Amino acid sequence: MHQRDIDSIVGVLKEKCLFTVQQVTKILHRCPYVLQEDPGELEYKFQYAYFRMGVKHADVVRTDLLQYSITKIKQRHVFLERLGRYQTPDKKGQTQVPNPLLKDILRVSEAEFLARTAYSSAEEFEVFKKLLAREEEEKSESPVPDNKSLSLDEEEEEEEEEEEEE
């Protein structure tokens, strides 16, 4: 590997993800494959875990979270969230339901995840993964942010108001 590639990854971990030097060392020692990841993808994966899941820096290091694909992380997290078995902690780190441990979400086989953490069937998870993939695809295709697009009802109301004004 080129030194600049290593420096780029280390820079993302230290400056963008705000890991300590000691944490970066542990990450590189425990998950050396992060060096081969795209720096932007690595940052996104951390930000998803930190902001969406409420995972602390130490837990990211301890559970080797960065070794897993963003797809696997999202699939399992959103599945649990929609089942009501995972909740993003509030600003104080509190949740209404106790969240499962990261190791029980990521460091287990799919069968074990479904049986012991999600309490769900493989069929349900397969259908969910397809729907989630479709949602992600639609988001990436949509040129207008969801909150700015008008519903059909709103468009009809605007047209009626314009006609009344004339």
TrEMBL record:
Annotated signal sequence range: none
Entry keyword set: Transit peptide
Gene Ontology MF terms in the entry: nucleic acid binding
Residue ranges of the region described as Disordered: 135-166
Domain of life from the UniProt record: Eukaryota
Gene3D superfamilies per record: Transcription termination factor 3, mitochondrial
Segments of skewed composition (Acidic residues): 152-166
InterPro entries: MTERF, MTERF_sf
Family recorded in the similarity comment: Belongs to the mTERF family.
Protein name: Mitochondrial transcription termination factor 4
